[in-house]
UniProtKB/TrEMBL annotation:
<protein>
    <submittedName>
        <fullName>Purtative protein</fullName>
    </submittedName>
</protein>
<feature type="domain" description="Amidohydrolase-related">
    <location>
        <begin position="89"/>
        <end position="440"/>
    </location>
</feature>
<dbReference type="GO" id="GO:0016810">
    <property type="term" value="F:hydrolase activity, acting on carbon-nitrogen (but not peptide) bonds"/>
</dbReference>
<dbReference type="InterPro" id="IPR051781">
    <property type="entry name" value="Metallo-dep_Hydrolase"/>
</dbReference>
<dbReference type="InterPro" id="IPR057744">
    <property type="entry name" value="OTAase-like"/>
</dbReference>
<dbReference type="InterPro" id="IPR006680">
    <property type="entry name" value="Amidohydro-rel"/>
</dbReference>
<feature type="region of interest" description="Disordered">
    <location>
        <begin position="1"/>
        <end position="28"/>
    </location>
</feature>
<dbReference type="Pfam" id="PF01979">
    <property type="entry name" value="Amidohydro_1"/>
</dbReference>
<dbReference type="InterPro" id="IPR011059">
    <property type="entry name" value="Metal-dep_hydrolase_composite"/>
</dbReference>
<dbReference type="InterPro" id="IPR032466">
    <property type="entry name" value="Metal_Hydrolase"/>
</dbReference>
């Protein structure tokens, strides 16, 4: 046995008061120091807007943004980590425009702490899948968005609208919603909606959502699959109520009211009264697609949720009414997304996965790739999403944009399924994930490059294979 020298602690000679973090009582101690700059050389940069790849690019990431993208090989950035990405693609970070972070992963449970614990895992898991931005359309809070922004909870940058605004007896009525796994545990879903009826009440509630920091307001104008007592065909909120909501949001400088709507009457009532976002839209017809295109209304289909509910093991967990409703919307949704593309609607990427289905998020790419060319599907999750979010720093690798990007072994404009699975069938198709100029995921050959320069900036600490 080797004898270790005895470690000793001796008291300080004088006791000086310790200064506050950063020398300033106003410092927020959890804000991380800026990441070291990154220079990607020799990168094949994916330009989604132009459906092209720009070869041999030098891309500089500093202080959370791209500061230059050029052919200049001789860029020198002090203290930078330099990567030679020869043969690799640099793709804009992905955006999922329809998520519920408090309900995505794990088995549903009663109680009010679990949704927040679940959200912490879900945010990390979504980032590990390459989603550097998500839009929550029911349940997330302003505080959660701030926690992500400040890197206290690693995750995608989060756009949120607070709770869903529903009429009594509507799709968002929390008293009548059930989880898909209801037959397993009989637990109600966590609170994610608020009820209001009549012009005065919806105006007040909309103002309250805006006060709470909503980036958008989500309403329901049709019935839904996971609510037993509202018919899919029901049309919800009166025209006057919808106008009260949309005009209040406009007056308060909000960006968008978006509506859960499956049927043509529900979509039309929403759009004719100022709504400019449609969620799901599975029963959309061609005339209504033309209306969406001519009014600049965004469509966010969610194919994966109805696909998952229609197959094992999830179909067995559904009550009969839910299985019947799901069958009505599943195949229709696949036609609707094609009609919308043909009519020039701005189509966005959404998944809507809840109650343990979050791990299927990336399969939405594979589902859409069966219906549309890969470059269109990639636009749904990048450039079109940026328009929906009204933020031109998203979905593009260009000077001034957020330094959110993926390192890929192949060109996603040719086969977008690389964003779903790798060669080995795991989540290995994406080799690197960078958000805000911080490297959070490194796999494959990119992992070796990152190891050489000191490792990851942020360790997610989750099992990414799940
Ligand atoms: Zn949803």
């Amino acid at each position: 046995m080797t004898a270790h020298p005895r470690r000793q602690w001796s008291p300080p000679r004088s006791q000086r008061p310790r200064p506050p973090p950063g020398g300033d009582v106003n410092t927020i101690p959890w804000i991380p120091a800026p990441a070291r700059p990154i220079v990607f050389k020799n990168a094949s940069v994916v330009d989604v807007a132009n459906n092209t790849v720009n070869r041999s690019q030098t891309v500089v990431l500093e202080n959370g943004v791209f500061t230059s993208v050029s052919h200049n090989w001789n860029v020198v950035v002090p203290n930078a980590r330099v990567f030679d990405l020869e043969g690799l693609y640099l793709c804009p970070g992905l955006v999922d425009c329809h998520v519920h972070i408090n309900m995505s992963d794990g088995r549903p449970s009663s109680g009010y702490t679990e949704p927040h614990l679940r959200a912490t895992y879900t945010l990390k898991a979504m980032l590990a899948r390459g989603f550097t931005t998500v839009r929550d359309v029911g349940g997330a809070t302003f505080a959660q968005a701030q926690a992500v922004k400040q890197w206290l909870t690693p995750g995608p940058r989060l756009f949120q609208g607070g709770n869903i605004l529903s009429q009594t007896g509507g799709h968002g009525d929390p008293r009548s919603r059930e989880s898909p796994a209801a037959s397993l545990c009989c637990a109600p879903v966590p609170e994610m909606s608020v009820l209001a009826d009549g012009v005065d009440a919806v105006t007040h509630t909309t103002r309250e959502l805006m006060r709470q920091g909503a980036d958008h307001v989500k309403i329901c104008t049709s019935g839904g699959v996971s609510s037993p007592t509202d018919a899919l065909k029901s049309v919800q909120f009166s025209p006057a109520e919808i106008r009260a909501i949309t005009s209040t949001v406009a007056d308060m400088q909000g960006t968008l009211v978006t509506s859960h709507a499956y049927t043509v009457p529900a979509i039309r009532r929403a759009v004719e009264n100022g709504v400019r976002g449609i969620e799901h839209g599975n029963l959309l017809d061609r005339d209504t697609a033309k209306l969406l295109a001519s009014t600049g209304t965004f469509l966010t289909p969610t194919l994966m949720i109805s696909t998952a509910k229609g197959r094992a093991p999830w179909n067995d967990t559904l009550p009969d009414y839910m299985r019947e409703k799901n069958a009505k919307v599943r195949d229709a949704g696949r036609r609707a997304i094609q009609i919308a593309e043909e009519e020039g609607v701005t189509v966005c990427f959404g998944t809507d996965l809840t109650m343990g289905m979050g791990y299927l998020q990336s399969e939405e790419f594979t589902q859409r790739a069966q219906l549309l060319p890969s470059h269109r599907v990639l636009a749904h999750a990048t450039t079109n999403a940026a328009k929906l979010l009204n933020d031109d720093k998203i979905g593009v690798i260009a000077a001034g944009a957020y330094a959110d990007c993926l390192v890929l072994p192949t060109n996603p404009l040719v086969d977008v399924r690389v964003l779903d699975v790798g060669d080995d069938g795991r989540h290995g198709g994406i080799w690197g994930v960078v958000r805000d100029g911080r490297i959070v995921v490194a796999r494959g050959e990119f992992a070796e490059l990152v190891e050489d320069v000191g490792g990851l900036d942020v360790v997610l600490g989750i099992d990414e294979a799940k």
